[in-house]
Amino acid sequence: MTHKDVTEVNPMFTNLGKAFWKQASERAVKTAIQVFVALLSVGNVGVLNAPWTAALSTAAMAALLSVLTSVISEPVGQRQTPSIIANPSLDGNDVVLVQRASAVSEAR
Questions:
Q1: Cα dihedral angle (88, 91, 97, 99), rounded to 10 degrees?
Q2: CA-based nearest residue to 82, from 19, 37, 32, 31
Q3: What is the pTM of this model?
Q4: Residue ranges covered by each domain of the chain
Q5: Which of 40, 79, 82, 107 could form a disulfide with 24 if both were Cys (CB 3.0 to 4.6 A apart)?
Q6: How far apart are the C-alpha atoms of 35 and 72, rounded to whole Å?
Q7: What are the residues whose beta carbons fall under 8 Å from the beta carbon of 34, sequence distance 6 or more?
Q8: What percent of the chain has pLDDT over 90?
Q9: To 5 degrees, how large is the angle CA 49–CA 53–CA 54?
Q10: CB of 20 within 8 A of CB of 82?
Q11: pLDDT tens digit sequence for 40-81
Q12: Is the model's pLDDT at 29 over the cut of 80?
């Protein structure tokens, strides 16, 4: 059995550009930091008795899961982004449009 490049196994990876990986990496780093801080802040933990190994290991797993979630979300949401929302906007109008579309379909 020969080694295959990831792009040969799944051609979807060839379509993910630099912007996608930059956004996915940012999400993964934020997730890792949040998990790390949350684990260290549980209970009365001091610098000397903190569960550093467990916190780092769990944060790394959370970062990996974040990247996998981004890759899985790419074909669902707006293309070339790790977002699962079709057309994310800063003003929140996309949520209102989804609610309106849902209300229209329920009325039929």
A1: 100
A2: 19
A3: 0.63
A4: 6-107
A5: 82
A6: 21
A7: 62
A8: 36
A9: 95
A10: yes
A11: 888 777 778 888 899 999 999 999 999 999 998 888 888 888
A12: yes
